[in-house]
Structure formats: structure tokens, C-alpha cells
Amino acid sequence: MTQSAESWDEGTPKRLYVITGGRQPPEQAAIDLVTLIVARTPPQPGMKREHAAILTMCHYPLSVAEISAYLGLPFSVVTVLLADLLQATHIEARDPVPAAALPDITLLEEVIRGLHKL
């Protein structure tokens, strides 16, 4: 019995099951959509193509949401793949850089008043 070509379409549950080996995202993983991922090593021979693709695209930091979009895979599947790469120390996960605090409006108003007096 052979698999029909349509059962292995890119988004089918069977394909996603094969990619993850049936595993679920680890609960202890501190990976969310805005976590930045950067590769620490180049792709290795014999890696799954999804792992290699992540290492190739993450030569500069990318968010998990971007990786998911570029691969065309759901967040849960990408999380499993990233957990594999983290465990093997092929990638580094970073928290996003927090946005700079907005300046105090009253301080800005005082500076403007001081400049007008000059």
C-alpha cells in the first residue's frame, strides 16, 4: 500500500507528526512567539531539513514567529524543532530587547521651555 501524494501535502497532520516524531512542545521551554533565535553552529550533515533550514536562516536573530512563517509550520511544531536545537546547543534563545522607556513628558516640557528662554 502506498501513500497518496496528497496525504503528504505541506500542511497535513501526517507530515507534521513525522517532522516532530509525534512529540509535543516541552512545557519547560521558555520559547514564545517573540523569543529571538540565533544559530551558534552551521547546519550539520544528516540533520533534518527543517533543523538545517532554521540554522541557515538564523545567522542573525529571528523571532520564533518569523521562523514559523518562513517555514510555513505551526508554532507548536517549530517549538519542538527549536527545543531539539537548543538541547544540542546549535542555537541560542534570547529574550527580545525591551523597548526603551518613554521619556518623562514633564521633563521634555521643561527642556523646551528652557530652550525658548535662550
TrEMBL record:
InterPro entries: DUF742. This is DUF742 domain-containing protein.
